[in-house]
Design a protein that fits this description.
Largest sheet: 6 strands, mixed
Radius of gyration: 14 Å
Helix content: 25-40%
């Protein structure tokens, strides 16, 4: 890849503390979000470049504290024109994660600088 493309996945930390969201359920949420955003933006130049070298994809999984914080981040990204997908799990109608389409790291890293790696003991 010529660009330093990265895909950010933002997981709600409060779900990891809830007994109804085990490790498998949380991983599934991230997978749903990634699949959705790659589908939605499939024809995007960055997405196509990212998918050309599947053995070198770069993803960063970060934690955000709760639903309100996730929605604030979603609003900030929308206002700045950063393409993403907030995954809403059904039938629970619960926003579980937010996934950004692949971007050059320098274009989007500022939005995530205050978040830590998702590192929950499950």
């Amino acid at each position: 890849m010529s660009k330093n493309l990265v895909q950010y996945i933002i997981m709600r930390g409060d779900l990891a503390k809830s007994s109804k969201w085990n490790a498998g359920a949380l991983v599934a949420q991230a997978c749903h979000g990634v699949s959705a955003v790659l589908h939605l933006y499939y024809n995007d130049e960055n997405v196509q470049e990212y998918l050309c070298d599947v053995d070198r994809m770069h993803k960063v999984v970060l934690e955000i504290s709760d639903l309100n914080s996730l929605m604030e981040l979603e609003t900030k990204l929308k206002n700045k024109g950063i393409h993403h997908k907030t995954w809403i799990e059904q039938p629970e109608n619960e926003a579980t994660c937010l996934v950004v389409k692949p971007y050059p790291k320098e274009d989007v890293a500022e939005f995530f600088k205050d978040l830590k790696l998702f590192n929950k003991k499950l």
